[in-house]
Specification:
Blueprint (H helix, E strand, L loop, with lengths): L2 E8 L2 E8 L2 E4 L7 H10 L5 E5 L14 E3 L13 E3 L12 E4 L3 E8 L2 E8 L2 E5 L6 H11 L4 E5 L11 E3 L31 E4 L2 E7 L2 E8 L2 E4 L7 H10 L5 E5 L14 E3 L13 E3 L12 E4 L3 E8 L2 E8 L2 E5 L6 H10 L5 E5 L11 E3 L31 E4 L2 E7 L2 E8 L2 E4 L7 H10 L5 E5 L14 E3 L13 E3 L12 E4 L3 E8 L2 E8 L2 E5 L6 H11 L3 E6 L11 E3 L31 E5 L1 E7 L2 E8 L2 E4 L7 H10 L5 E5 L14 E3 L13 E3 L12 E4 L3 E7 L5 E8 L2 E4 L7 H10 L4 E6 L14 E4 L11 E4 L12 E5 L1 E8 L5 E8 L2 E5 L6 H10 L5 E5 L1 H4 L5 E3 L1 E3 L13 E4 L11 E4 L11 E7 L2 E7 L4 E4 L5 H11 L4 E8 L10 E3 L17 E3 L6 E7 L4 E5 ...
Parallel strand pairs: 10-12, 23-25, 36-38, 56-58, 64-66, 71-73, 78-80, 84-86
Antiparallel strand pairs: 1-2, 2-3, 2-7, 4-7, 5-6, 8-9, 9-10, 9-13, 11-13, 14-15, 15-16, 15-20, 17-20, 18-19, 21-22, 22-23, 22-26, 24-26, 27-28, 28-29, 28-33, 30-33, 31-32, 34-35, 35-36, 35-39, 37-39, 40-41, 41-42, 41-46, 43-46, 44-45, 47-48, 48-49, 48-53, 50-53, 51-52, 54-55, 55-56, 55-61, ...
Length: about 1450
């Protein structure tokens, strides 16, 4: 399915990109028109198109340009509904990427600019306003972002741009500021308000921005159309600067800087020259003219420093002092109530003053004067300006100037390392300068570390140890005494080192404000923080990986490997400074995370938190295996395999806590990395604790690419798998450790361990943990360790382990689990939590349930799961409304006694077209709705049999027998989860106590889910009228067997506790129609010949069945119970229904994927298909474990495309459980979009040199060549698997020593070790390579299951005359030397043939009478049936293990098939 997005602008404007398969592609402007634009805007909820822009107006895209041309009519609701055709513009490049501007769902009006004005939103096709209650800068920021109008300058209310008209759609809007559209913000609800238009809100957004500095300083960029342009310094003057600073709310301009002072921009340089007068409110109001400076480049980008809307005063530095903010042209202070480090961080960032060092209140820098603009400021810490933080309304406070807030920011920073280590840079004016190593000493270092709150200096490093800086080297020499609090307090003098370059940039390592102790490694240990000059610990309550990530980042120690509690590194001492730490993970220092105040904790040192960090990581495998990447500066680099040896591997494995190295793998074994390849060569000795401690030297392999990325497997590498289950998400648990797979003892495995295994495998949540080798006994060893997972780990490598104390491990105790992708369930939009529309969660996505795939038993399980009792009714969307989003069409095959819906097998995915109008709802017994109309029950009978009572007009009433009773019975049985109608009849008139409580007239079609959906019922006086008595088949009372599917096969009925067959006397297409209807298998396609699906066994229950064709159950038809000797099993009825399905690959184990449905073979489209889907197909066809998909041409051009958007999930075990579009609904092209599957690990087998097809030397096809198998360890169990795979009988012998002759090609397999129950030979442990040291080849002798030699009868019909031809099957004859010994044999054969002919003639005579009697009753059309591929059915029977034994073949199958052909 195509998806569409707009990139590079706003939510409703940008470059058009479509998702096709897994790739986003741009669209050529020559292939995109107004109709296409209308559909895109409609799909994105962005109103009508405003403008279609060609020529990459929103920038050049990446990846591919789409090769299709959209041909929308303009009426479609989504882009995937539009027809497409191959584009004729083959030379389309990203220079012609099309862009689009839609009207959007928000606009600004009456402000003289599209980026300023009254806010109006579009809802239900009508524009309306927004009430100003609680409207603030975060709300305004969302509006500006949505419109692509830069940043919010002001948030206005009280009808500033004039009152609007029409509805007031939103009130009490509360945005976090990160939403993509105003509609995503919280509010009262559409149209709910206590407002009038005098309070309509407005917004002023900026069409100009300053980049590369702070909010009020940086490179000037102006918004023109939808693109940002830099401005040439020759075209920008003081008047222009005044307008820019005014528009941004940044006071007056301080300095205009040319020569790309804030760095070179990207994109285009503006070709216009601004000619502002200086009094304009916005840059777009200034006149402009074409610039005469045609050669202006980004080297001339202009920069600007404005005074800003926040400042620090009376602190002796622009980065220290009392906080003052500019509002409505006047400076005012900020109240210190609740003022904290997160608020200070925003101020420092806004001023471009690096990080906050301290936060002060109580007028530390003296009391201010004028208004107190802000109080109760509450910043998250990520805001770009203080004005965007939550606070009381402007000027509203309960404060005085004695409580004015202050901040100390740093005028120095460390770059290229961590917060407390890196290249020293000092802020002078608005520019950061590096410092020459010859001008920097220990006293300077002490001041820098003190200012940054990083303790004492550890090391001063020269020679650009943290990389070469950019910009200028500072021309001053610091002369600190060492006791200053900030670098700006140190004296300076002109440096005498005039030739200092960036090669001499000084670096510094400080002790930091956080440290890890107790492990002997600075990147692992107990967490300690420095506060008020004292080190203290952190309590482990709620300590998690996000908190650990902040610590590792702050220390420059790479990524967090583990977050530990309960004093893993020993208890600390002193103060516990932090408790209940709650980091988002993006903070630059631990102090910026939320926590309890230092004196508020309920902890002791037994719970001290710890962290393990790493500067090296393994990517693409597990925690302990993958591609090696090292952290250098702020960048991860891959490592060349030629530069990595065993000693390096030992250090890496040690650092990531994964034991010893197992294997070093070159050639990008774990995939090609991205970014750069490290240019250094590691020279570890092997005893280092961390990779950064290893010496390095420049690598001599200058041509190393990502094709040579080195990979590593450490001994601690553990991964899990599930084997021998019904799908990828169930089976026996096995753990890979070292180089072997181990099973796990059930006594060492619990629910928390199961949660981690399911999560690691992408399988959702565990449904059941099963002991006692529920999935079979494993091979090899049982793991000797016990997992001790907490349950929240991402993979088992992160779980703690301990030696298992159970020494008597045996494979009879192997643990297994069943995981489910369906991880949640709820009932929504009902009157309570026990009634409503069914919604299920698959992994993280919620969706509704299609009513055609939902029944009472599934509903009962769901009610039990939700602790809502049992199901009372399954209802349609007319009860609880239509849902939105995904529709799950999984058919849950519940028995009704399961405790959780995920325990029910999924029998298939319903491919009927399903829309939200068919969303299923459920009413459970614990719901307040249980006394509503339409509940049914049986009285005076069993659970699924008795007189029917319905809750009607607030009372229970008996149902009278009438003309609708059969349809009513069908609904009642369905509603009660009792299957289909077995029979219905009348009961005796009601007893006196029920005389006045009856109902009649339910007008049902028979397909309703609930009796209340039937119309026209009315209460009547019972008097002496007959009442409805129903017998339901609690479970299906008929079945089709022998085809491998539920919708074709030999018909069997359940009677007197036994399954039996049906005789074909009088059987016709109308009878078959009833069977298909009862089984919900569509319509009957044909009446197969008797015993086509094999003769049955046991009783033959029914004969002379005569249906009208409209019955809901076979039991409603006329029939006779079959007497003894009336019929034989060679006359057993078979049925093929339209819902019978099969799959095949056209070339065996590769080729086009084709599906048999509705009597016809058709194609499957490749769209959305993934490797998981291809692998499942290969497994289902016994063609190996994995496969790949590709595009192909249809084999038969006229064949239908049956399936599209087919995408299997991990817990699907057959193709029919996989989601797809409904049958026949597709948008794919038969010429090149049909799915072709190649099963990659399939090893075809053949036997050569033996007698017949089931004995001989075994050969396998590998690497495009047939080869033999070595007879080492070859035994009868191996032979058994081969015989099964080849479709032969049981193995008679496993032949070695080249009994059938030596093969001529390679010897591909050796040391095969099967258990005997595997499906394929490659499922057995084996060695696969060219074994040149083996000369003795393996063979097998299997029992030959080919049918015995019988005469075949060909019947040719000419008019009403039938002629018979008897043909002997060819059989090898023994060599003879004389005619006389042969004569008795010939005579015996002739006598035998005569006897057979006589039997056949007698049988044919009887059959002919029956056929003729049937034909008298049939129309000519009924006598013409579609041909069903018999080979398909035979093949399927063999695959599923249901092939008939030799004793079951009657020899009459061919006779009967020809008779009815």
């Amino acid at each position: 399915m195509l998806e569409v997005r707009l990139v590079g602008g706003s939510r409703c404007s940008g470059r058009v990109e479509v998702l096709h398969g897994e790739t986003w592609s741009t669209v050529c402007d020559a292939g995109f028109d107004q109709q296409d634009a209308e559909v895109v805007c409609r799909e994105l909820g962005c109103g009508l198109p405003v403008e279609v822009l060609g020529g990459a107006a929103f920038g050049r895209g990446e990846s591919q340009v789409w090769s299709e041309e959209l041909q929308c009519r303009g009426l479609e609701s989504q882009i995937h509904s539009c027809p497409t055709s191959p584009s004729l513009k083959h030379n389309c490049s990203h220079d012609t990427d099309v862009g689009l501007v839609c009207a959007g769902s928000v606009r600004l009006v009456d402000g003289g600019s599209r980026c300023a004005g009254r806010v109006e939103v579009l809802h239900r096709g009508q524009w309306g306003t927004v009430c100003g209650d609680n409207w603030d800068m975060r709300d305004a920021a969302v509006v500006c972002r949505e419109l692509g109008c830069g940043e919010a300058v002001d948030a206005l209310s009280d009808g500033h741009f004039g009152p609007g008209s029409g509805p007031i759609w939103m009130d009490d809007v509360d945005c976090s500021g990160s939403e993509s559209t105003l509609k995503n913000c919280r509010s009262r609800g559409w149209g709910k308000h206590n407002c009038d238009h005098s309070k309509d809100v407005g917004v002023i957004c900026s069409g100009v921005r300053l980049v590369g500095g702070s909010r009020c300083s940086g490179r000037v960029e102006v918004l023109h159309g939808e693109s940002w342009y830099t401005v040439c310094d020759a075209d920008f003057d003081q008047q222009d600067a005044e307008v820019v600073c005014r528009e941004l709310g940044c006071g007056l301009p301080v300095e205009v800087l040319g020569g790309a002072a804030f760095g070179r921009g990207e994109g285009q340089v503006w070709s216009e020259e601004l000619q502002c007068r200086g009094n304009e409110s916005q840059i777009h109001s200034c006149p402009s003219s074409p610039s005469p400076k045609h050669n202006c480049s980004h080297d001339s980008d202009v920069g600007l420093v404005c005074a800003g809307s926040v400042r620090l005063v009376d602190g002796g530095s622009r980065c220290v002092g009392r906080v003052e903010v500019l509002h409505r042209g006047q400076w005012g202070t900020v109240c210190g109530d609740n003022w904290d480090m997160r608020d200070a961080a925003v101020v420092c960032r806004e001023l471009g003053c690096e990080g906050a060092v301290d936060v002060l209140s109580d007028a530390h820098f003296g009391p201010g004067s004028g208004p107190i603009w802000m109080d109760d400021v509450d910043c998250s810490g990520s805001e770009s300006t203080l004005k965007k933080c939550q606070s009381a309304l402007w000027g509203k406070h309960a404060c005085n100037h004695s409580n004015d807030a202050g901040v100390i920011c740093s005028g120095v920073r460390l770059v290229g390392g961590s917060h407390c280590s890196g290249r020293v840079e000092v802020l002078h004016g608005e520019t950061w300068y590096t410092v020459c190593d010859a001008d920097f000493d220990q006293q300077d270092a002490e001041v820098v570390c003190r200012e940054l709150g990083c303790g004492l200096p550890v090391e001063v490093l020269g020679g650009a140890a943290f990389g070469r800086g950019e910009g200028q080297v500072w021309s001053e020499e610091l002369q600190c005494r060492g006791n200053e609090s900030q670098i700006h307090s140190c004296p300076t003098s002109s440096s005498l080192k005039h030739n200092c370059t960036h090669d001499s940039d000084v670096g510094l390592v400080c002790a930091a404000r956080v440290r890890l102790v107790g492990s002997g490694n600075r990147c692992a240990g107990r967490v300690e923080v420095l506060h008020r000059g004292q080190w203290g610990t952190v309590c482990g309550d709620n300590w998690d990986m996000r908190d650990a990530a902040v610590v590792c980042r702050e220390l420059g120690c790479g990524e967090a490997v583990d977050a530990l509690t309960d004093t893993q590194f020993g208890p600390g001492s002193g103060t516990i400074w932090m408790d209940d730490v709650g980091c988002s993970g993006s903070e630059s220092t631990l102090k910026k995370c939320s926590s309890l105040e230092s004196h508020k904790h309920n902890c002791d040192h037994s719970k001290d938190a710890g962290v393990i960090c790493s500067e090296v990581r393994l990517v693409g495998g597990s925690h302990c295996s993958g591609r090696v990447e090292v952290l250098h500066g702020e960048t991860w680099y891959t490592v060349c395999d030629a530069d990595f040896d065993q000693q390096d591997a030992e250090v890496v494995c040690r650092e990531v806590g994964c034991g010893l190295p197992v294997e070093v793998l070159g050639g990008a074994a774990f995939g090609r990395g991205e970014g750069q390849v490290w240019s250094e060569e590691l020279q570890c000795r092997g005893n280092e604790s961390q990779i950064h401690s290893c010496p390095t030297s420049p690598s001599l392999k200058h041509n190393c690419s990502h094709d040579s990325d080195v990979g590593l497997v450490c001994a601690g590498h553990r991964k899990s798998r599930l084997t021998d289950g019904s799908h990828q998400c169930s089976g026996r648990v096995e753990v890979f450790h070292g180089e072997s797979w181990y099973t796990v003892c059930d006594a060492d495995f619990d629910q928390q361990d199961a949660e981690v295994v399911c999560r690691e495998l992408g399988c959702g949540l565990p449904v059941e943990v099963l002991g006692g080798a529920a999935f079979g006994r494993g091979e090899g060893q049982v793991w000797s360790e016990e997992l001790q997972c907490r349950g929240d780990e991402s993979e088992i490598s992160f779980c703690l382990k301990s030696p298992s104390f159970r020494l008597n491990h045996i494979n009879d105790s192997d643990v297994g689990i069943i995981c489910s992708g369906h991880t949640g369930a709820q009932l929504v939009n009902g009157s309570d939590s026990c009634s409503g529309r069914v919604e299920l969660q698959y992994l993280s996505e919620w969706g509704t349930v299609c009513d055609v795939s939902w029944d009472m038993r599934a509903a009962s399980v769901l009610c039990g799961q939700l602790k809502c009792g049992s199901a009372v009714a399954v209802v349609g969307s007319d009860w609880f409304g239509e849902g939105s989003g995904q529709i799950w069409a999984d058919v849950f095959d519940c028995q009704g006694n399961e405790t959780h819906l995920s325990q029910c097998p999924i029998s298939s995915w319903s491919r009927a077209a399903c829309f939200h109008q068919q969303d299923a709802g459920v009413i459970c017994s614990a719901s307040s709705l249980v006394l509503h109309e339409g509940r049914v029950r049986f009285s005076e009978g069993t659970e699924c049999e008795g007189e029917v009572e319905v809750y009607f007009q607030q009372d229970w009433r008996r149902v009278l027998l009438d003309s609708w009773s059969e349809s009513v019975a069908s609904v009642v049985c369905r509603q009660l989860g009792c299957g289909s109608v077995f029979s219905f009849s009348s009961s005796s008139p009601s007893s006196p106590e029920h005389r006045h409580m009856c109902v009649t007239g339910f007008n049902c079609s028979g397909s309703e889910a609930h009796l209340v959906n039937c119309s026209s019922a009315q209460a009547v006086n019972c008097s002496s009228r007959e009442q409805l008595y129903i017998t339901c088949s609690a479970h299906s009372s008929i079945r089709l067997v022998g085809s491998g599917g539920d919708c074709a096969g030999r018909l069997e009925v359940f009677h007197s506790g036994l399954w039996g067959t049906v005789c074909d006397d009088s059987w016709d297409i109308k009878d078959a129609q009833v069977v298909c209807r009862q089984l919900q298998c569509g319509v009957a396609l044909s009446v197969p010949v008797p015993a086509q699906f094999g003769p049955g066994t046991g009783p033959i229950w029914l004969n002379e069945v005569e249906c009208e064709g409209n019955e809901t159950s076979l039991w409603n038809c006329r029939f006779q119970m079959c007497g003894e000797d009336e019929c034989e099993h060679m006359e057993d009825v078979g049925v093929v229904c339209s819902e019978y399905k099969e799959i095949r690959l056209t070339e065996g184990c590769e080729g086009n994927l084709e599906v048999f449905y509705n009597g016809t073979w058709g194609n499957v489209c490749v769209k959305d298909m993934n490797e998981e889907t291809a692998s499942l197909i290969c497994q289902e066809l016994n063609c190996g474990r994995s496969g790949s998909e590709s595009q192909s041409k249809a084999r038969v051009g006229s064949a239908p495309n049956w399936l599209d958007n087919l995408k299997c999930r991990k817990h699907d075990s057959t193709l029919w459980q996989c989601p797809s579009s409904p049958w026949g609904q597709n948008t794919c092209d038969n010429s090149d979009e049909v799915a072709r599957i190649t099963c990659s690990d399939h090893l075809p087998l053949r036997l050569r040199g033996g007698d017949g097809s089931c004995s001989g030397r075994l050969e396998v096809y590998h690497n495009s060549e047939w080869g033999s198998i070595c007879d080492d360890q070859w035994d009868i169990w191996d032979a058994q698997v081969v015989c099964r795979q080849l479709g032969c009988g049981p193995a008679l012998s496993a032949d070695g020593s080249s009994v059938f002759g030596a093969g001529s090609g390679p010897v591909w397999m050796n040391r095969v070790k099967c258990r005997g129950n595997e499906i394929h030979l490659w499922d057995c442990p084996h060695s696969l390579k060219n074994h040149t040291d083996c000369s003795q080849h393996a063979g097998v002798t299997c029992a030959d299951v080919s049918a015995p030699t019988v005469p075949s009868v060909t019947t040719i019909t000419v008019g009403q005359t039938e002629k018979e031809a008897v043909t002997l099957s060819e059989t090898p004859s023994a060599a003879v030397t004389s005619v006389y010994p042969v004569s008795p044999l010939v005579l015996g054969v002739l006598l035998f043939l005569a006897l057979v002919l006589l039997v056949v003639l007698l049988y044919q005579n009887r059959r002919l009478r029956r056929v003729l009697s049937k034909r008298k009753r049939r129309t000519p059309a009924e006598a013409i049936y579609e041909e069903i591929d018999q080979r398909l059915i035979t093949k399927r029977m063999t695959q599923t293990g249901s092939a008939l034994s030799k004793t079951e073949h009657s020899g009459y199958e061919d006779v009967d098939e020809e008779l009815l052909s």
